C-alpha cells in the first residue's frame, strides 16, 4: 500500500511531512514548514492546532469555532508556496466552497519564532 501524499503538496508522504508536526512529535523548523502544516490542519479540520500555532499577540482575533466552520465548509484542493524568505511566506491555497465554487486564497504571511517554536502572526491578503 502506497503512502498517502501530504495535503500540503510537498510531494512527501503525510507520515513524514506534516503529520509529526500536527501530532506534536516534531516542531516546524522554518516558517514554510509551519505554514504547510497549518494548511494541512485546515484540510483535516484541526482547529486546535491552528489556534495553538497562532502567536499569542494575535490569537484573540482567531475564534476556534469560526476556524473549524470555515475548514469544514471548504474542500481544500492544493497549496502552492510562491516565496519563503526569513519569517515571511507567500502562498496560494486553492479550495472549493460549499457551493462548489473555486477560490484562491493568496496571502503573504508573517511568522515569529519564540524559543524553537514558530508561530503564525498575521497575513496580508493579495
Automatic annotation (TrEMBL):
Record domain YchJ-like middle NTF2-like: where: 31-123
Domain of life according to the entry: Bacteria
Protein name, entry field: Preprotein translocase subunit SecA
Amino acid at each position: 500500500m502506497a503512502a498517502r501524499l501530504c495535503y500540503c503538496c510537498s510531494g512527501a508522504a503525510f507520515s513524514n511531512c506534516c503529520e509529526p508536526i500536527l501530532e506534536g512529535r516534531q516542531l516546524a523548523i522554518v516558517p514554510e514548514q509551519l505554514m504547510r502544516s497549518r494548511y494541512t490542519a485546515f484540510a483535516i479540520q484541526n482547529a486546535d492546532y491552528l489556534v495553538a500555532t497562532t502567536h499569542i499577540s494575535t490569537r484573540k482575533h482567531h475564534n476556534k469555532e469560526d476556524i473549524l466552520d470555515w475548514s469544514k465548509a471548504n474542500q481544500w484542493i492544493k497549496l502552492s508556496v510562491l516565496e519563503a524568505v526569513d519569517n515571511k511566506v507567500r502562498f496560494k491555497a486553492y479550495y472549493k466552497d460549499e457551493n462548489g465554487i473555486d477560490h484562491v486564497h493568496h496571502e503573504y504571511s508573517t511568522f515569529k519564532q519564540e524559543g524553537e517554536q514558530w508561530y503564525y502572526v498575521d497575513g496580508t491578503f493579495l
